[in-house]
Amino acid sequence: MEKDSHALQEHPRARLAFLPTPVVRLPKLTQSLGGPHLWMKRDDQTGLAFGGNKTRKLEFLVGEALAQGCDTLLSAGAAQSNQCRQVAAAAAAVGFDCHLALGGEPPRDIKGNVLLDLLFGATLHWCGDQRKGEALPRIAETLLSRGKKPYVIPYGGSNAVGALGYVSAMEECVAQQRDLGIEFDAIFVASSSGGTLAGMYAGAKMFGYKGRIIGIAIDKTAQSTAAHETMLAELATETAARAGLPIRFSADSFELLRGYLGDGYGVVGTRERKTILRVARSEGILLDPVYTGKAMGGLIDLIEHGELGGMQNVMFWHTGGTPALFADPASLFEGGP
Ligand SMILES: *Cc1c(COP(=O)(O)O)cnc(C)c1O
Q: Which of 135, 152, 157, 232 could form a disulfide with 162 if both were Cys (CB 3.0 to 4.6 A apart)?
């Protein structure tokens, strides 16, 4: 079973990422916390437009778009969506047009990810409170009527095609464990639309990763417990099938922590602020204000409360997002920089 990566290799794939991403130690953070050895998988360094987890998903999504003869990428997200920024860059890289349906109103200041979307030549559609792709069918219609061939990438790139990126990422991670001569007791990762987590669970089964994989919810999509886990199970099952592994996941397969949402999606509170400054100043590594600042805040809290007592090696999977640091600098400092 562990050697059968064949079906995965048959999927069309656009090579957009610099892989493998490094695995680094976090020695000073480890020492100051006095808990398990901490490691970080640097998917903030995937190389496409400042990197992030969406690059891995886009390798398979854009691969499919190319195979289908499309000429335009269409996606949706929050105003500071990392997904949309990466879609815009991927479109430019393969010579496609790009249309993005963004939540909110046209901003007065162009900054962070919005600036990058525009640099890559994307057309932005401001959609008010519809930040999860509600407007995609309408925009796709318009594009079709103009003779374009749009490829629609759902919110977060989280379907069974995009999630293949994280099946493949687990193969990479297992090889890195082997090279380092260690086994991670747990991987911690920020989770929102779920494609990353579902892909990791499928990849873990496929490539024989035996530790835990613990998602930390960063928005309330995940708040209504049962429905979200059911969605994760269906997505992981479908993703595994595509990768050639016929297994079924059930809702209770998933570990997703919901206690670190703080004041909600994208809100930088005391925990996020402290965490971003702590990791920046102790390791020289940037986290982001929306996802990894919250998730690392959660991991640190668990260690401080002795919750990871039995673990030797713990991996924090950095999923990127750092351009959002430039969207609201004042939020990163209490009482101003
Ligand atoms: C999108 C994103 C996530 C969440 O990934 P999902 O697959 O949507 O769960 C985590 N971190 C960053 C930086 C992201 O941009």
A: 157
- Answer yes or no: is the C-beta of 81 below 6 A from any ligand 1 atom: no
Query: Are the C-beta atoms of residues 313 and 184 closer than 8 Å to each other?
Result: yes
Closest CA to 107 of 148, 140, 149, 78: 78
Find the catalytic residue in 81, 158, 168, 192.
Answer: 81
Which DSSP state fits 122? Answer: P
Question: Mean pLDDT across the stretch 65-88?
Answer: 97
Output the CA–CA distances (angstroms, integers) from residue 293 to 16, 37, 168, in the order listed: 25, 19, 25
CA–centroid distance, 7 to ligand 1, in Å, is: 25
Measured between alpha carbons, how far is 299 from 189 in angstroms, rounded to an integer? Answer: 9
Residue 122 contacts residue 91 (beta carbons within 8 Å): yes
* CA 320 to ligand 1 center in whole angstroms: 8
Statement: the pTM of the whole predicted model exceeds 0.90: yes
Nearest Cα to 24, choosing from 331, 246, 269, 283? 283
H or E element in which residue 62 lies: helix 53-67
pLDDT in tens, 174-202: 999 999 999 999 999 999 999 999 999 99
Least trusted range by pLDDT, from 195-209, 244-258, 323-337: 323-337
CA 17, 20, 26 angle in degrees (round to 5)? 115
Q: List the strands of the sheet with 123-126, edge to edge.
A: 123-126, 97-102, 72-77, 150-152
Give φ, ψ of 94 to 5 degrees.
-100, 5
